[in-house]
Amino acid sequence: MNAIPDGRAREAAVLAQGVSRWFTDTRRQRHQDGSDAPAGPRRVVALDRVSLEVQPGELFGLLGPNGAGKSTLIKILSTLLLPSEGTVRVAGYDVVRQAHQVRRRINMVSGGETVGYGILTVRETLWMFSQFYGLANGPALKMIDEYLETFGLADNAHTRVNKLSTGMRQKMNFIRGLLNDPDVLFLDEPTLGLDVQTARIIRDFIRDWMRRRPGRTVLLTTHYMAEAEELCDRIAIIDRGRILACDTPDGLKRRVQSHSVFRIEAARLDAPPEADGRWPGIERISWEPHPATGRTRITVIAADDAAVTPLLADLRERGADIIHLSKVEPTLEDVFLQVVGRGLGEHSGA
Amino acid sequence: MLEELERNLRAVRARAYVRVVGTFRELSWVAFEIAMPLLSVGAYVFLYRALGAPERYIGYVLLGGAMTAYWLNVLWSMASQFYWEKQSGQLEIFFITPVSRMSILAGMAAGGMFMSTARALGTLVLGSWLFGVQYRMEGIWAGLGIFLLTLAALYGLGMVGASLFMMYGREAWHTANLLQEPIYLLSGFYFPVRALPRWLAAAAGIIPITLGLDAIRQVVFPGAVDGLLDPGLEAALLAVSCAAYFVLAHAALRKLEDLAKREGRLTLRWQ
Amino acid sequence: MAVRMRLRAFRLAAWLGWQMESNWTDPWLFAVYSIIKPVSSALILVVMYYVVTGGQTQGDLFAGLYVGNAFFMYVGQLMFGMSWVVMEDREFFRTFKYMYLAAPSIYWYLTGRAVAKFLVTSLAVAVVLGFGTAFLDLPLALGAVRWGYLAAVLALGILACVAFGLLMAGIMVISARHGQGYAESFAGVLYLLCGVVFPLDVLPAPLQPVGRAIPFTYWIEGVRRALMGRGMSPSLAGVDDGAILAILLLSSLATLAVAVLFYAWMERIARDRGLIDQVTEH
User: Fold this and answer.
1) Distance (Å) from the C-alpha of residue B163 to the closest C-alpha of chain C?
2) Tell me: the pLDDT tens digits for A92-120?
3) Touching check for A123 and chain B: CB below 8 Å?
4) Residue C166 lies in a domain
5) What CA–CA distance (Å, rounded) separates C194 from C191?
6) Residue C60's closest chain B neighbor by CA?
7) Rg (CA), chain B
8) Angle at B234 (CA atoms; ends B242, B48), nearest 5 degrees
C-alpha cells in the first residue's frame, strides 16, 4: 500500500519511501527437537516497505495494534533509528544524513514515559529541556509558565517530578514536546494509560495547537480508534510492519459502507467457531469474549444482510444465546477489521 | 554558527544544573563523599607510616585519593550515565534535540565535578592538615595548571567511554567496573608510578591521571625525585592527549551513535 | 511454612543475583573479569610495600596486610552487593516495589542477591592468596592451615558482612541515586579502622577503641591466625583464639540485630515519605 498521494505541490512534512526496518535476533533458539543450540541469526521485520507522505498542517494518524511497527516508524522519523532500507525526509531533510537539521524542527512525546529527573521540579525540568533548544531564559520561562497554566499544572510548577501523578507527568512531558515550537510533532501513544479527563485535555490541546499554528504537522500513533477518528485528517492503518490502508476517516469508512456491519452479543458461547468460509457472504468476523460477563461481542462484516442468518443459526446450534443483534453504521473499528482481517485487540481471526 | 555555540553552551549549563541542584537537595553525600573518603585514604597513610616511608609519600597518597573523586566521576557519573539515561527513556529525548552529545556529557561532567571537587578538596585539605603534609608553595600554580590539563584529558577519555554505553549495556557497565581498581594500580594513585616496570608505566601514560599525578607530585612535593618523566614533558603530553581524546571522543560518539541506530540499540532498554 | 517461604525467596534472589552478575558475557571472560579487579587491588598494596622496602616481602607485616586485604574484599563486595540491589531495583529496573510486594522477607531477598557476590569474591580471594603464595613469598601452607577455625571465623565474618550490607541497604532506601558510592566509602572507613593493612596499634589512640568495637577487626585477625598461625596486631596478641571467636560471634550478632532494626527504621521512613519507589537520578 502506498500512502503517497499524487501531485505534490510543496515539500512534505514527512516523506517516507519504501522504508523497511529489520532487526537481527541472534539469541539461542530452542529447536523443535528441544535442543538449545544456536539456530543462526533470525531476521525480524518491523517495517516492510512503508511509504507515506504527510503534508504540512496535517494531523496524520497511524493506527495499529501493539507491535504493528508504529513506534519503530516514529523512531526512524525522529532520527533515533536508521532505516534498513528506503529514504525518509522530515521537514525537508533526510533523517539519515541531515539528522541535526531534522532535530531542530521536530519534537516527540511518547506515552507511558517517565521523562525528567525525579529530583528536579516540573518548572526546572522544562527549563532544562528548553535550554537544549537554545531558548533564552526569560522567554523560555514565560512560555513554560503559560503552558503550565494551560495544562492546569501551574500549582505543581515547583513540585518534584518524582512526586507527580502519571497524568501530571504526561502533561509535563507534553509541554516538553512543545518547547521548541516544532514544525513536526511526533506523538507516540500520547494518551496511553491516562484517565479520560487528562486524555481529553491533551486531545483538545492538540486540536487547538494545530489551529493556532497553521503549517505545523502532527504525526500521531495510537491504538485508540476514537482518538484517531476524532483527531486525524488522515489515517494510515498499519499492521505487521505494513501500511494496509491510508485515507481520511470518512474515506476509510466508505470502504465498508457497501457492506452490512452487525454487532452481536452472545452468551454461553464457550469457544468461537472456526470461520473457514463456513458462512457464505461473511467477509470478516471478530470475536471479543468478556470473561467477566461471560458474553462475547461479535462484529460481522457481511456482503448483505441475509448473510448473517446462517451464522446466527450456527451460534444457536452451539448453545449460545443471542442477547443482542443490531446493524450499525461502520466505524473505524470495522474498517480495521475489514482491512486487517481481525479486530484491534485480537491476535487472529476469520 | 554562533547560534549553535549558544545552544550547546546552554545545554552544558542545563545538564550541569541538574547535577548541582540534585546534589544540594540530597545532602547525605557530605558525610559519605567528604569525611569517609578521607578516612579511607587514611588507611594507606597509616600503612606508609607503619612501613616508615618518607613523609612525601603521605602527600602522594592524599593527592591520589583526591584524584579518585574525578576518576570515579568520569567512570560512574559520565561514561556510564548514558546507560542510565537510556534506561529511563531520557537518552532518546536528549538525542532528538539539536545539541552535540559532547555538550550533554560536558554538562554531566561539569555538574558532577562540583561533588567531586568537594570530595577532592575534603581529602586534600583536611588530610594535609591532619597528617601535616608539606608542599612546595612555588610549585602550586604549576601543579594547578597540570591538574586542569589532566582533568580536561580525563574527561575527554570519559567521553570516549560514554560512546560505548550508547551501544552496549551491561557489558559496558561491567567493563567500567572492571577498570576501577586496575587504573588505581596502573596510574599510581597511591605510589609513584615509577615503581612499576618502565614499559608498564609508559603504557599507563595513555591514562591522563598517570602523567598528571606524576607531574603534580614532582612540582608540589619537596624532595620528589621519583618521577617518571620531566613534569614539563608530562604536561606537554597531557596537552596532546587532551586534544587527541576530544577528537577521538567526537569521532567515537558519532560512529557508535550511528552504529547503535543501525542496530536499534540506542533506545534498547534493560540491556 | 514461613521459613520455607523465606528460603525460597533467598534461593530465587540468589539465582537472580547470579543472572545479573554473570549473564552479560561468556564464562571465561567472566572468570578473567572476576580475577583482574581483586588482583589489581592486591597489587596496589604490594607495590606500596615494595616501593618503601625495596622489594622485601618476607616480613610478617607483608603477610598480615596481604591476607587482611584479600579477605576484606568480602566486606566491600557484600556491602556493595546488598546495598546496590536497592538502587538498581528501584531506579534502574524499577522493580523494588514489586519485590516488596512479592518477597516474603526483604531481608532474605537482599541477602540472597548477595550470594553471587559471595561466590565471585570467594574465587577472587582464592586467586589472590594463590598469587601471593606463588609469586610473593606469602607463607601459606595448606597443611598448616587450621581449617576448622578458618571455617568458623569465615562464617561469622560473612554474617558480619551481611549485617553491614543490610545497614548500607537501609541507607540506600532513603538515599538519592548518588548514594551508589556510599558503600564503597563506608568500606574504606572500615578498612582504616579495622587494621586491615596495618596493625591496629598504628591507629591514633582515640580511633583504636572504635576499631575494637567492629567485628571485622577480630575477623581479619582470626583469619590471619587460622591461615598463618599468628595475627598482626600486638594489641590483640593477648586475646586467645577462642576469645577472638567469641567476640566475633557476639559482635556479629549484635551488628546484625542493629542492622535489622536500622533497616526497619529506614524502611518506615521511606514508606512514610513515599520513597520506596522514588526515582531520583540526576
Assistant:
1) 19
2) 999 999 998 999 999 999 887 767 788 88
3) no
4) yes
5) 6
6) B51
7) 19
8) 115
* Distance of residue B35 Cα from the nearest chain A Cα, in angstroms: 24
Assign A257 to helix, strand or coil: helix
Nearest residue of A to residue B101 by CA position?
A132
- Interface test mutation site (partner C, options A113, A115, A117, A119, max chain C beta carbons within 10 A): A119
| Cα–Cα distance, B250 to C175 (Å, whole number) | 35
Give the pLDDT confidence of A138-192 residue by residue, as tens digits: 999 999 999 999 999 999 999 988 888 888 989 999 999 999 999 999 999 888 8
Q: Provide ipTM, 2 decimals.
A: 0.84
Instruction: Answer whether residue C165 is part of any domain.
Output: yes
Q: How far apart are CA A81 and CA A94, in angstroms?
A: 13
Q: Which residues from chain C sit within 8 angstroms of residue A120, using beta carbons? A: 282
**Inter-chain residue contact A23 with B15, CB threshold 8 Å:** no
Which residue range(s) make up the domain with C216? 2-273
Interchain CB distance below 8 Å, B22 and C280: yes
The answer to whether A261 and A91 have CB atoms below 8 angstroms apart is: no
Q: A78 touching B, CB under 8 A? A: yes
Contact yes or no for B39/B31 (Cβ under 8 A): no
The amino acid present at A256, given as its one-letter code, is V
Into how many domains does chain C fold?
1
Determine the distance in angstroms separating the CA of B161 from the nearest CA of chain A, rounded to an integer: 20
Supply A179's cell numbers.
Answer: 518547547
Does A132 contact C at CB distance below 8 Å?
Answer: no
In degrees and rounded to multiples of 5, residue A32 shows phi and psi of -65, -30
DSSP reduced 3-state for A56: coil
Whether residues C281 and A117 touch (CB distance < 8 A) is answered with yes
- Nine-digit cell at B27? 545532602
Q: Is B87 on the interface with A (CB under 8 A)?
A: no
Residues of A in contact with C274 (CB under 8 A): 163
Residues of A in contact with C278 (CB under 8 A): 118, 162
For residue C280, tell me if it sits in a domain: no
Question: What is the per-residue pLDDT for C24?
Answer: 67
Q: Where are the beta strands (DSSP E) in chain A?
A: 2-3, 14-25, 42-54, 59-63, 85-90, 93-94, 106-110, 184-188, 217-222, 234-239, 242-247, 260-267, 282-290, 295-302, 321-328
Kindly state the cell numbers that stand for A296: 462475547
Tell me which chain C residue has its CA closest to the CA of residue B271.
Answer: C24
Contacts of B among chains (3+ CB pairs under 8 A): A, C
Residue with cell 579511607: B40
Q: Global pTM?
A: 0.79
- The helix/strand/coil state of A55 is coil
CA distance C276 to C261: 17
Asked if A163 reaches chain C (Cβ–Cβ under 8 Å), the answer is: yes
Do C181 and B32 touch, CB atoms closer than 8 A? yes
